[in-house]
Design a protein that fits this description.
mainly alpha
């Protein structure tokens, strides 16, 4: 499950680029 999640995360970062990664980090900081 963790491996699948990591793959999905990498895919989102790859497609979203740094902007996607930054948004993801913002969500973690927000929580």
């Amino acid at each position: 499950m963790a491996c699948k999640g990591a793959g999905l995360l990498l895919t989102l970062i790859w497609r979203g680029g740094l902007r996607g990664l930054y948004a993801l980090l913002s969500q973690f900081i927000r929580i």
